[in-house]
Specification:
The complex is a heterodimer of chains A (about 220) and B (about 325). With about 220 residues, chain A is α/β, with parallel strands linked by helices. Chain A has nine helices and five strands. The chains are: A alpha/beta (about 220), B mainly beta (about 325). Chain B: Belongs to the WD repeat G protein beta family.
């Protein structure tokens, strides 16, 4: 919870929409170290957060409207940061990584895929020195690895690991993506876009087919 | 007390007559009428772009009518206008209040508006002479939070408020032209008809009302038992109403969904309905068959708002993690 110790506010289901905003505001007020929010007002907010059945028509009390007028936004920045961190922790399970992991051999490769925590996404870049695009993709993945600590980025040298037998230079660089027990062909463009891909020119170096988007209609 | 009893009986009588009239209009169910239509199949939308720049949860977003630009409002106290193709930020507008519940893009593309717990609707001119975006008007009169706003033109905007009313404003003068009163609970959302003659408001009094903008009157009321949170956006359940038959057609629900809907976006053809829920998921419904045909899923996708562009080519979602994503 964003709030400290005792000031817990049961979130109920109101995360989104106008009720979500009201809910966020109430949590902020309860958590606020602002002296302008005395105990009795905090008590009111707590009560409003657990409405009785006959109260469902109106979402905010008159006193709460008055509290907004006296707002001090100094604590808001701190509160927002806390909320983001808390959400990240709550929703990103499993181990964290901070760089692209170099796999030395075929055994390493299998081990990583089989052993990683079931919720961790594993991305392996098969590269070969001298093959166009591999170096670019490696730099790109270095950046992404920092930005997405919940994803395990790895790379393996096709020649050094013997993978070159299976992966001829024409298909490199190749990105393999693994999640839980399902192997699925990487849909590179869509996937990397979900992560907010950096320079798009890196993508054109990849040997993957790009997915055609269908109309929403 | 005799008179009260009589009036109560009369009211009940009228209610029964309405129910009977509606039943008489119901010559078939949507399921039967749609039975011969082909199934739409699994719908899989993919993220095409990610818009990064906000520093906190996205509360609302709205597409411009050009289907290229869109505006988003966030807890970080900013309104950002994006070019969804290049992902560039066209404008970043600082707001006085961070508790913003809604934002809107004028059909002309000249103005944007937003409002929230400050009880005001602030209008910004994007095409000012010196290039700076400034507050053009602050429409203040509501005594409750501003839950939604939608432009009719550069000179008129409609707002819905937690004070149980909706208002049509004259932006030039900053005055209220028409007050649409009648709801018994907080108005949570509104949607304007494509011909700009009507709008529908949804409120916490369990009803949705169809209003005639020029007459200022309520033409129809829908609902009754469920809490209507967002227009067309219904808490707990998603329902489709037929305006002409004046009744509920179908409910979109699934036993695995345990929370309310807070945002809705129909596809251009109306065949698909994207519904955003309180638990941050988005379900895609086949409107005719009432079946779930897809979900918007991403690795960390937690959707707080959703919008489909006017040309129907893309959908935009805003998330708790400060990113907006463009899907198709």
């Amino acid at each position: 919870m964003c709030s400290c110790g005792e000031e817990e506010l049961e979130l109920a289901a109101n995360h989104t929409g106008p009720k979500g905003v009201i809910n966020d505001w109430r949590r902020f007020k309860l958590d606020s170290e602002d002296q302008n929010v005395p105990q009795n007002k905090k008590e009111l907010i707590r009560q409003m957060s657990h409405p009785r059945d006959d109260d469902r028509l109106r979402k905010m009390s008159v006193q709460e409207y008055e509290m907004i007028q006296e707002e001090d936004e100094r604590y808001l920045k701190h509160y927002r940061k806390q909320c983001m961190q808390e959400m990240h922790q709550r929703l990103s399970f499993g181990p964290r990584f901070d760089s692209v992991h170099e796999l030395q051999s075929g055994e390493d490769f299998l081990e990583v895929i089989e052993q990683e925590h079931r919720l961790t996404l594993v991305i392996v870049h098969i590269y070969q020195h001298g093959v166009k695009g591999c170096e670019q993709l490696n730099s790109c993945l270095d950046c992404l690895a920092l930005e997405f600590p919940g994803v395990k980025f790895c790379r393996i040298d096709a020649v050094a690991s013997g993978a070159a037998e299976r992966f001829s230079p024409e298909v490199l660089p190749a990105l393999l993506v693994y999640k839980a027990e399902n192997f699925f062909a990487p849909d590179v463009e869509a996937f990397l876009n979900e992560y907010g891909l950096l320079p798009e020119k890196v993508l054109t170096a990849c040997g993957e087919d790009e997915d055609e988007g269908g109309d929403l209609e | 007390m005799g008179e009260m009893e009589q009036l109560r009986k009369e009211a009940d009588n009228l209610k029964d007559q309405i129910t009977a009239a509606r039943k008489a209009m119901q010559d078939t169910t949507l399921q039967e009428a749609a039975a011969s239509i082909n199934v739409v199949g699994r719908v899989q939308l993919k993220t095409r772009k990610t818009l990064r720049g906000h520093l906190a949860k996205i509360y609302a977003m709205h597409w411009s009518t050009d289907s290229k630009l869109c505006v988003s409002a966030s807890q970080d106290g900013k309104l950002i206008v994006w070019d969804s193709i290049t992902t560039n930020k066209v404008n970043a507008i600082p707001l006085k209040s961070s508790w913003v519940m809604t934002c809107a893009y004028a059909p002309s593309g000249n103005l944007v508006a937003c409002g929230g717990l400050d009880n005001m609707c602030s209008i910004y001119n994007l095409k000012g002479k010196d290039g700076n975006v400034k507050v053009m008007r602050e429409l203040a009169a509501h005594t409750g939070y501003l839950s939604c706003c939608r432009f009719l033109s550069d000179s008129e905007i409609i707002t819905s408020s937690g004070d149980c009313t909706c208002v049509l404003w004259d932006i030039e003068t900053g005055t209220q032209k028409t007050i649409f009163a009648g709801h018994q609970g907080d108005c949570m959302s509104l949607a304007v008809s494509p011909d700009f003659k009507f709008f529908i408001s949804g409120a916490c009094d369990f009803t949705a009302k169809l209003w005639d903008i020029r007459e200022g009157t309520c033409r129809q009321t829908f609902g009754g038992h469920e809490n209507l949170s967002r227009i067309n956006y219904i808490l707990d359940l998603c329902k489709l109403y037929d305006l002409r038959a004046d009744q509920e057609l179908i409910t979109y629900q699934d036993s695995s969904i345990m929370c309310g809907v807070t945002s809705l976006a129909p596809s251009l053809s109306g065949r698909l309905l994207l519904a955003g829920y309180d638990d941050f998921n988005v379900n895609i419904w086949d409107t005719l068959k009432a079946e779930r045909v897809g979900v918007l899923a991403g690795h960390d996708n937690r959707v707080s708002c959703i919008g489909v562009s006017s040309d129907g080519m893309a959908c935009c979602t805003g998330s708790w993690d400060s990113f907006l994503k463009i899907w198709n």
